[in-house]
């Protein structure tokens, strides 16, 4: 929630709470919208129904956007794409005045370039990857549409009728390569992304069929922390809010045919990456996506740990929703160990982390 000047012409300039929405498209573009919801008095007095305003276009990917995930504090987000990259952004760096002036100049330059050379520009993105026993530098040539569209659709609702009007995109800011703080290369598209809710800066991503891994990164330094080879397309990732564990759901494993991988939900511990539990689905349907279901089973006792976060809802390729209780209501015993949350004493000291057990209090 961010306070901005109201778009209501009868309340112009007043600071009001607004929400931010990110929308990805099939060409790799990300549109950043500001949403101002109307108050009841604005509807009754001014007949003003709120406004959705585009404020920025982010052009760092070259293919379809598969995932967009905000951090718990709403100040960072990660995008995943079919171009096999996951990009990490920080809103405060994007929105400062210096960046705004630079991007305005880039938009003007891009428009002149389009008049001379057409509507596409090319740029080169350099990414560094480090891992056990290897260090390589890759150069990936990327093309993108450098110009936002000249119009956008502003949508409002009157009663049950949706109305749409076209408004000019003047003032829309363009962010291109270099806006992202980090760019993490995978071997397939990235659909699954999850910020850890109890450790700031810990991010998990899941690769598609060509990758078949869960990757863990430290956002502050871009350091790769661990990789779990799961042998299947990772379709969603959900951190536990009370335990140092993460649940993953899986799709295809051996190709775009009947899947041979029997497991569709697996829970891993962090940072040991040990498998805690696994759920196999008979008949081979794929897990397409999952979300946490905070209330848990209907017969769960009120106030129990299960009621808070034990269940996830999984959309399946057999056109059903499946409810699985992946975290029981009994907490694990706290276990100390030499391996810390981020796998490095240096990273943990930078983050102010003390080594504790498996239960998050």
From TrEMBL:
<feature type="repeat" description="WD">
    <location>
        <begin position="58"/>
        <end position="92"/>
    </location>
</feature>
<dbReference type="InterPro" id="IPR015943">
    <property type="entry name" value="WD40/YVTN_repeat-like_dom_sf"/>
</dbReference>
<dbReference type="GO" id="GO:1905786">
    <property type="term" value="P:positive regulation of anaphase-promoting complex-dependent catabolic process"/>
</dbReference>
<keyword id="KW-0853">WD repeat</keyword>
<dbReference type="InterPro" id="IPR036322">
    <property type="entry name" value="WD40_repeat_dom_sf"/>
</dbReference>
<dbReference type="GO" id="GO:0010997">
    <property type="term" value="F:anaphase-promoting complex binding"/>
</dbReference>
<dbReference type="InterPro" id="IPR033010">
    <property type="entry name" value="Cdc20/Fizzy"/>
</dbReference>
<keyword id="KW-0677">Repeat</keyword>
<dbReference type="InterPro" id="IPR001680">
    <property type="entry name" value="WD40_rpt"/>
</dbReference>
<dbReference type="GO" id="GO:1990757">
    <property type="term" value="F:ubiquitin ligase activator activity"/>
</dbReference>
<dbReference type="Pfam" id="PF00400">
    <property type="entry name" value="WD40"/>
</dbReference>
<feature type="region of interest" description="Disordered">
    <location>
        <begin position="99"/>
        <end position="120"/>
    </location>
</feature>
<dbReference type="GO" id="GO:0031145">
    <property type="term" value="P:anaphase-promoting complex-dependent catabolic process"/>
</dbReference>
<dbReference type="GO" id="GO:0005680">
    <property type="term" value="C:anaphase-promoting complex"/>
</dbReference>
<protein>
    <submittedName>
        <fullName>Putative WD domain-containing protein</fullName>
    </submittedName>
</protein>
């Amino acid at each position: 929630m961010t306070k901005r000047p109201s778009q209501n012409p009868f309340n112009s300039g007043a600071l009001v709470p607004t929400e931010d929405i990110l929308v990805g498209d099939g060409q790799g573009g990300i549109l950043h919208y500001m949403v101002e919801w109307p108050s009841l008095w604005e509807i009754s007095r001014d007949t003003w129904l709120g406004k959705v305003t585009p404020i920025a276009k982010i052009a760092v990917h070259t293919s379809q956007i598969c995932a967009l995930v905000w951090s718990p504090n709403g100040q960072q987000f990660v995008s995943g794409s079919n171009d096999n990259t996951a990009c990490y952004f920080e809103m405060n760096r994007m929105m400062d005045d210096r960046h705004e002036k630079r991007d305005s100049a880039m938009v003007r330059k891009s428009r002149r370039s389009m008049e001379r050379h057409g509507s596409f520009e090319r740029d080169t993105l350099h990414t560094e990857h480090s891992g056990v026993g290897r260090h390589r530098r890759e150069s990936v040539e990327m093309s993108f549409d450098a110009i936002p569209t000249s119009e956008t659709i502003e949508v409002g609702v009157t009663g049950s009728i949706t109305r749409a009007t076209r408004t000019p995109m003047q003032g829309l800011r363009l962010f291109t390569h270099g806006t992202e703080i980090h760019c993490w290369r995978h071997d397939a598209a990235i659909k699954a992304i999850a910020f850890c809710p109890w450790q700031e800066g810990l991010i998990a991503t899941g690769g598609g069929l060509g990758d078949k891994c869960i990757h863990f990164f430290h956002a502050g330094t871009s350091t790769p922390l661990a990789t779990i080879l799961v042998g299947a397309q990772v379709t969603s990732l959900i951190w536990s809010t009370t335990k140092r564990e993460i649940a993953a759901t899986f799709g295809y494993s051996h190709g775009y045919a009947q899947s041979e991988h029997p497991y569709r939900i697996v829970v891993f511990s962090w940072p040991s990456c040990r498998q805690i539990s696994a759920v196999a689905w008979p008949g081979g349907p794929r897990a397409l996506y999952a979300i946490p279901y905070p209330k848990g089973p209907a017969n769960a006792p009120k106030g129990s740990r299960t009621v808070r976060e034990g269940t996830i809802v999984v959309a399946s390729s057999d056109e059903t929703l499946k409810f699985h209780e992946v975290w029981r209501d009994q907490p694990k015993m706290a276990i100390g160990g030499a391996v810390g949350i981020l796998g490095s004493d240096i990273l943990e000291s930078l983050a102010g982390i003390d080594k504790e057990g498996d239960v998050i209090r």
